[in-house]
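User: Predict the complex.
Assistant: Input components as received:
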Amino acid sequence: MLRYSLRRTAQMVVVVFGVVTLVFFILRLASGDPARMMNPPGQQEEIIQLTREKIGTDRPLMVQYWDYLLGLPQGDLGKSFHGGHPVLGELLKVFPNTAMLAVATILFSSTVAILLGIGAALRANGAFDRLVLVYVSVALATPSFWLAIVLVLIFSVHFDWLPAIDMEGPKSFVLPVLTLAVMLTPVLIRTVRQSFLETLSDDHIRAARARGIPEHRVILVHGLKVAALPLVTLIGLQLGMILAGSYVVEFIFNWPGIGKLTLDAVAGRDFPMVQGGVLVAALAFVIVNFVVDLAYAALDPRIRMSAK
Amino acid sequence: MTDLATAGISPEAVAASAPARTHTLRQLLKRRTFVIGAAGLTIIVLIALAAPFLAPHDPMTQDLGKGLAPPFWAKGGSLDHPLGTDTLGRDVASRLMYGARNSLVIALFAVLIASVLGLVAGLSAGFSRGWWDSLLMRFGDVQLAFPFILLAIAILGVISDRSAVHLILVLGIPTWILYARVVRSRVLAERDKDYVLGAKSIGASRMRQMWRYILPSVWSAVLVIAMLDFGFVILLEATLSFLGFGLTPPTPSWGSILAEGKRNMIISPWLAVLPGLAIMLTVLAINMTADGAADVLDPKLKISVFRRTPLKKPANATWTDLEGRAAASTRSQPVATKDEMGPPTLLEVSDLSVEFPLPDKVVKAVRHVSFDVHRGRTLGIVGESGSGKSVSAFSIIQLIEPPGRVTSGEVLFEGRDLTRISNYDMAQLRGIKIGMIFQNPASSLNPVLSIGSQMVETIRLHLKVSPAEARDIGSQALLNVGIGNPQAILSRYPFQLSGGMNQRVMIAMAMLTRPDLLIADEPSSALDVTTQAVVLERLREITREHQTSLILITHDIALVAEFADEILVMYAGQVCEVGPVRSVIDDARHPYTRALLQSVPRAEIESGKRLQAIPGEPPDPAELPPGCPFADRCVSVMGICRQVNPSQVRVRPHHDVACHLWSSDKDEEKV
């Protein structure tokens, strides 16, 4: 177990380091001069040079990179080019908003996926199953940003039931979570359905029935305990999709989260902020996947015991 | 990318694929999803190609006076701008058509780049199998470990003048790994196959091997992944354009049209809705095409959304329909009545038939089977796999896997017909009055629940006791089946116990409620020989002690000879011979029973080999003869055997046999 954790940690460090390095150099090589962009057009060269010195882009690239790397372990992610606030503080301020959105999405999506997946599997090839499969294929083809707009047009503009933008109270979660759920549920439903179909034909399910265990317990306890295991891993893997989706959703719904912060920073060439946003995303992704793997082991005694 | 990577395309799933099959267009055209998808896709591509001729206006021409005109069906709309205009007065229909060109071309080239990169990487990795292979695959792992769209945004966001080439590279390069993994595993699976090794030995060069033998099998997989990737890239490109990281304006693409439409979505919602619909329909058409194609081109990929789940064939039923005449003639009579045999009858099965309707045929797994089980006695049911013995047993407790169903007959248990009682009443009987133990003890226990929690659950289901009391009862029950350290076993999981231990747990659980009837389906065949003896001995002791009737289902006639009081021999879903065990063993009348007995030189022989001693195979279910199903393997076959299925005749007290050798049919010659 310890060796496994160490290996995974090393792997996570490599991934995060790679992503951070890649972003660092891509930003600086592919982009124009941020100092020039921060000044009005036609500004004197001396003033632009002063800006460069202020934000530190006048130094050689490798020096900047080395400084950045040295700062990382101490939690120093640099200062925003705009306003000079420490990047870490800004990230921590908005991180809970994205995290809440992600957690709400995962809870809602997995509930829906389990209900629809089980329902479809119990009557495989029946009318409900067909309906669910139609939903899955249409949802897979639906662009999330477009769905968000359609939802806003229907529920905010036409009916005026839900707020269209900003994060204000529980009601404002509805549309962003719905949008992300339509993105996430197709894959989850498919997995639950398939895994449930396989589990239902397992010997132990039939044996449980033969022992007189009531059908609802057979399905919800004996079936679900086994069938839900793949779902746990899948949700970890899908976190990347949720993160990517939250960029879109935060952009549309003006949600003050990591995604919106990063997009704004990209548009304003605020390099340290972009790096910070990507770093948070990368960290969240690898850490959650690590936790998910541990959770899987905890849920499945076959893995838990053999790891001891 | 994350989506595709986790959608079920695992290298393992495709590693074992067969070599390229010859697939025809006809097969594809049979798939409705493929036809609909391909037709839709063709229309979309044709519209995109013909945009210069079809578009009513130039997509870039601005006419500020005509800004935000509604589409023709709305008030104030006109056919001059069928789908209205945007803020700058540009024709939306024309922009959508030209936008399709950009979206499709970008996606097409991105997919081309990805598939070529992936193909080359996968082939070289699979063939080298050395450091190059591990380097590529580790790199791929790292890349898959991070959602690439975030990097794509960062990269594209800082490029100020984005052309189609930038988008193609950013969207195309990252997905190489999806192709590479599948290609690599195909190469690994193919390269050691006989025909490739054969080509090597006759001196075919590496390149020729690749082209001649391996590419064809890789090709279909790459094609299917490419189609799915295509739809995914279109979505991704639209997303990037929408976020403002797509083609630099004013070049239209679906995502950028939508992004522009978003600004005026309150006044002119169609500006945002229409391009989204175009994207959705396109991706849906692509996915349907890919799905339908995957079924035919590469079923091993298992990516289908639309495919109907194939109905599982029941493991023990491979029998096709017999003609009604033949089936009707096998109708048998109950073996014996209560007064004839000592103990009273507990279970009376008469004229039981079970069918499994499959899409293309109806499998008749059990045909007109009758037998009795007496209180405190053991009935052994013997037969090969597929003889219907297990299905008969499952139909007693109404646990036939759907779509199987009982089509005729009744199962009388203490005077109640179990085929007609409600599910609720049946559940009350299961586990209380009728217990069952199964062939694979390890897989018949829930793998993620401890032995203790499964026992406690079962006990508390039937007895109103606290969990602690239930644990004590469970512990005592384990002691009764000869488990010396019950407390330790209770906290274990099934995978931690040996097969024999698991089976004893199963017996203990089944016997918890002192059932009147215990059904044991091949209780010992998954165990090794020494354990078999122990488990069966326990089974015998505990059933004797509680006066439990036992149905012992097995393919092992020696076992039945030793443990059963009565014996029922089944073949092809029907009864061959039935009677008291001594009578049947000492004076077997049916040629099949005799063959079974002759193939057992001694009692403790390795199971499984025995039945192969009977020459021939069970009849092909597709070409089942109208007469006796055993006729082709029978040493005493007569003319009538191939025409009329024999009915049961009594040959000795309580001893019946279904064979023309003993029936009067052969003299009557009725057809």
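The mean pLDDT of chain B is 77.
Let me know if you want any component modeled separately.
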